[in-house]
Specification:
Layout: E1 8-10, E2 14-22, E3 26-33, E4 37-44, H1 49-64, E5 74-79, H2 92-96, E6 102-108, H3 115-120, H4 128-146, E7 151-153, E8 162-165, E9 172-175, E10 182-184, E11 189-190, H5 203-207, E12 211-212, H6 215-230, H7 240-249, H8 262-271, H9 282-301
Parallel strand pairs: 1-5
Antiparallel strand pairs: 2-3, 3-4, 4-6, 5-6, 7-10, 8-9, 11-12
Helix pairs in contact: 4-6, 4-9, 6-8
The structure holds adenosine-5'-triphosphate (ATP).
């Protein structure tokens, strides 16, 4: 059954709540929840419960089974008795809140903003070494996600969905927002409609036959690697229409500066290969990023 063994937090146990973000179906708050202390809670908006509570449960259920240093840690779910329900009237479940609808997902609070914010801030510009360290962490988290059985395809990997904990050499990246994620049973996962964020979407997500593989996340990683290196937003000067046309005709290219490390350039290019089978796995990517990181260490030491 979904969310088996997951901690249920009553709404009344949440205190010192402060809104920190807003999404399509939810709102994200920072709050205190005993005995965890500082947490983030993603709430489903009341007006979306009827239509989207199933998707919200899927997101919670995916996160509940993940345990990796580079993936945001889920601590529990918030349940709330439906309005007008006299809790405890009909069954024991209602009294303990176990059968109450899930209205919030509680995760560790990751305090230093998103990777997107870090890349944008002029003071936060990352050195090549820092880029490689963060990219390696993201690759390891993604490799873990893809190594689950069934593999979990994220579908919305981008710097805005990577949270940052700590600063400088202590920065840790944590992949977040599993709202579009899907388990892949078999060779493909069904993707009848495009899902994700356009500049990061692989061509087969938009123009494919509705069946894609986990390699869609590797394409998104390629765009993310480019963004880490340049500090720019991808395809900034293009309209959505122009991005779509370029993606369809295979003429869409991110300009890689000539000063770019050749190894980094080749990572961006192979990750964004139009043919998913030519893209590396996150495991291979992690090995290559580790190589880049070690080369950089040598350059600094000698
Ligand atoms: P979107 O529609 O933008 O994808 P969403 O509703 O799917 O948003 P998230 O992307 O999970 O929600 O979170 C929205 C924002 O809330 C994040 O960009 C981040 O700034 C903040 N946030 C989410 N989770 C955490 C966390 N665990 N710790 C700190 N901040 C968080």
């Amino acid at each position: 059954s979904p969310l088996r063994g997951v901690v249920r937090v009553r709404k009344t146990e949440v205190s010192n709540e402060e809104k920190i973000g807003e999404g399509a179906f939810g709102q994200v708050s920072r709050a205190d929840v005993f005995p965890y202390g500082d947490v983030a809670i993603k709430w489903i908006k009341p007006e979306h419960i009827a239509k989207h509570s199933d998707a919200f449960l899927v997101e919670a259920d995916i996160l509940a089974n993940l345990n990796h240093p580079n993936i945001v840690r889920m601590l529990g779910v918030v349940t709330s008795p439906p309005a007008g329900d006299n809790a405890g009237d009909c069954n024991g479940g209602a009294a303990t809140g176990v059968s109450d609808p899930v209205v919030g997902i509680v995760t560790e609070f990751v305090g230093n903003g998103t990777l997107g914010q870090v890349v944008r801030s002029p003071s936060g510009r990352l050195s090549t070494r820092q880029c490689a360290r963060i990219a390696l962490q993201v690759a390891l988290g993604m490799a873990y996600l893809h190594s689950q059985s069934p593999a979990i395809v994220h579908f919305d990997l981008k710097p805005e969905n990577v949270l940052i904990q700590g600063e400088g050499e202590n920065m840790v990246a944590k992949i977040a927002d599993f709202g579009l994620s899907k388990p892949k049973h078999g060779k493909y996962v069904s993707c009848p409609m495009p899902r994700g964020t356009l500049p990061y979407m692989a061509p087969e997500v938009v123009f494919g036959n509705g069946e894609v593989s986990e390699k869609v996340d590797v394409y998104s990683m390629g765009v993310t690697l480019w963004q880490l290196h340049t500090g720019e937003e991808p395809f900034m000067r293009l309209s959505n229409q122009e991005i779509l046309m370029g993606l369809e005709s295979g003429t869409l290219h991110l300009p890689i500066p000539s000063t770019c490390d050749p190894e980094w350039r080749s990572l961006v290019e192979t990750c964004m290969d139009p043919n998913p089978d030519n893209r590396p796995s996150f495991r291979e990517l992690a090995t290559q990023l580790r190589g880049i990181l070690n080369n950089k260490a040598r350059t600094v030491n000698t």
